[in-house]
Amino acid sequence: MKAVSPILIEACVTSVPCAIGACQAGARRVELCDNLYAGGTTPGPGSIQAARAHLEIDLHVMIRPRGGDFLYSTLEFEIMKSEIQFCRDHHVDGIVFGILRSDGTVDIDRCAELIGLAGTMSTTFHRAFDMTRDPFAALNDLIALGIHRILTSGQRPSAREGIDLIADLVQAAGRRIIIMPGVGIDPFNAAHIMKQSGAREFHVYTHTIQFSRMEYRNPDVFMGTDRDFDEYALDVID
């Protein structure tokens, strides 16, 4: 009987304490990022170093200089290269990135340059994939580049909604590249997504609210741009 490969859970985390919590809860890999409300950006160097020092499981780091689209300026591209070199120097296991051309295709030349800088680090093409005009053309481009995996919600708002495309991508990819579903995977739908997609790696963000211990609170001042955002509550890994 053919052996079935084990399921790998990658936890999306936005802080080192959350990364440690995910490790203790059984995650086999973490993706460390910042600013999840913008879809994730590159975390600070101190967080990367601390995560590497405290984690025994694989650490993958988001390389994204800003929120928004995935068409980057020359300066932004230089920043991405510098951040990859920092990750390589500090023994990070993998990087997560994505660059597109203005026509919605994978920027093959720039991605190839980043892959070269990554050296032996694992490479994941993130949900920039979900913004490509032709997912199967993008799949073939990324296979040709030698990317190790693709994080995708099946070009829909969640993996549950994009399950049909995810399953088709898993079938088309075969053993050439890993298709990793992500977005909206929870204890209630994980088994269904696993069965329907045929995927073996899953990107999850499961969280709860941790309320601030601040006793004095100024109701007239807020730090961000969203007045409805509760600055005395933190999302932490559950």
Characterize the structure shown.
The structure is a single chain. The chain has about 240 residues and is of the alpha/beta class. The protein has seven helices and ten strands. The chain has helices spanning about 15-25, 45-55, 75-90, 110-120, 135-145, 165-175, 190-195; strands at about 10-15, 30, 60, 95, 120-125, 150, 180, 200-205, 205-210, 235. The strands form two sheets. Strands 7-6-5-4-3-2-1-8 form an eight-stranded parallel β-sheet. A two-stranded antiparallel ribbon has the order 9-10. Helix 4 (about 110-120) links the parallel strand 4 (about 95) and strand 5 (about 120-125). It is globular and about 55 Å long. The protein starts with 7 loop residues before the first strand and ends with a strand. The mean pLDDT is about 95.
Distinctive features:
alpha/beta; globular; single chain; 10 strands; 238 residues; two-stranded antiparallel sheet; 7 helices; 8-stranded parallel β-sheet
Break the fold down into its secondary structure elements and pairings.
Blueprint: E1 8-13, H1 16-25, E2 29-32, H2 45-54, E3 58-62, H3 74-89, E4 94-97, H4 108-118, E5 122-125, H5 135-145, E6 149-152, H6 163-173, E7 178-181, H7 190-197, E8 201-204, E9 207-211, E10 233-237
Parallel strand pairs: 1-2, 1-8, 2-3, 3-4, 4-5, 5-6, 6-7
Antiparallel strand pairs: 9-10
